[in-house]
Structures are given as structure tokens and as C-alpha cells.
Amino acid sequence: MALTQSLRAFVGRAWFSVALVLLWELAVRAGWIDTHFFPAPSALFESTWADASSGKLWQDSVDSFHRVLSGLVIGVLVGVGLGLSMGMSRFIDGMLGLPIQVLRAIPPITWVGFAILWFGLGSRPAIFLIFLGVVFPVLLSTYHGVKQVDLIYLRAAQNLGARGGFLFVNVILPAAMPSIMTGLRVSIGLAWILMVVGELIGAPGGLGATLMRAQDYDQTDRMLAYMIIIGVYGYVSDLLVSRVSSYVLRWQRKLDE
Predict the structure, then answer these.
(1) How many angstroms from the chain centroid is the CA of residue 171?
(2) Assigned CATH topology for domain 36-256
């Protein structure tokens, strides 16, 4: 029953997208749109199928996923760690607050020169840029999540004898988790954006690198196909994080009920 409902919901959301693709194909075939400037969906499918058949698409996907996942994991670990530390300690907040606010205002793309200088060419500069894009949203979300923990919960737990690690694990962290998961969802989108930027820095392969090479050779069908593929991967990643968030925060739904 649940599977049938999910399928119906998906069809209900997807029908407009399918209709839009069909209209796009008809408009190109009717000559209303120049195929050089905006190729038809059928041309995108042919280009994607060719790369998938040769194995190139799968290798590019693996390379890009590795960079996104590496930067995301490092950024989340550092961001959550710093956010919790700053939220729970006025001393650490006082020391790190100003430097972090200044660094947060610097666009990650401006670090490209230093990324190359420090890490050379390849995957590491891309991972570094993804880390920079991920760490600050997660850090700030975690920080505000800790700061917004209701004092009533803290005092009630302390009156019952909760202290130290027990108080942190059972009260502070669960209360801050909704904010942490929100920061993670924001960061996953930034990670895919910065993956494309990072793969311009001499990456040997990847979706972004292939997209840029297609641009150099005026392969508009491959350009648009890879843009859509990156968008789909970003959507699936966000959907996965959303499902994980729903599972982690299932206690919240029980409270609402």
C-alpha cells in the first residue's frame, strides 16, 4: 500500500516534467528552436547513451561522487565539531566567532589559487573547495541549533541528575539535530556546485571536467546532458539526505503526535 501511494505521488509530480520534455522535443523538430543553441532531448539521450556504453559516464560519475563525498564528510565533521564547541563554550565562541565570520564571507571560488598552490592538480583541490562550501553552513546551523536548545529541557535534565556527556548525548545533541540536518541539506547542493568548479582545476576526469571539455569543443548536446545529469545527482542526493533526516528525527514526529 505504501509503495503504491509513493508511486502515485511520484507520477503526480512527474507528469508536468514529462510533458515539458515532449513539448521541448516537438519544438526542436518543428524548427522553432535552433538545435545548435538548444539540442533536442533525443540528442541529449544519444550523447548520454554513447558515454554510458563506453563506460565514460560511469567513471566520471564515480570520480565526481568521490570528490563530493570526501569534501562533504570532512566539512560536516569539522562543521559539526566546531559548531557544537562554539555553541557550548563561550570561551571557544569568543575566540573563533570573528575569524569564522570573516572566512565565511569569502566565496570558496576565490580560494582556487591557493588550492592549486597547496594541493597541486587533481582531486585534492576540488575536495578542498567542496569542504569550504560545506563547512560553514553546517557549522552555523549546528551553532544556532545548540543555542536554541530550550532551557527548560536543560534544567529539567539537570534536576534529574544529568551531567556532562549524558546531558550532551541525550538532550543537547537531539535538540540541535534538526538544525544540523537543515545545514546538511543546504551543503549538499553547494557540494555539487563546487564539484564542477573544482574539476576545472586540472582534474583528470569527472562530470564537471567532461562538461567543460564539451564546452571547449562546442558539443552543446553533451554540455546540456551533463548539466542535467549533475542536477539529477544533486536532487537524488538531497532526497537521500531528506530520508535520512526523517529517520534521524523520527522522535520529533512522535512528539508532534
Answers:
(1) 27
(2) MetI-like fold (1.10.3720)
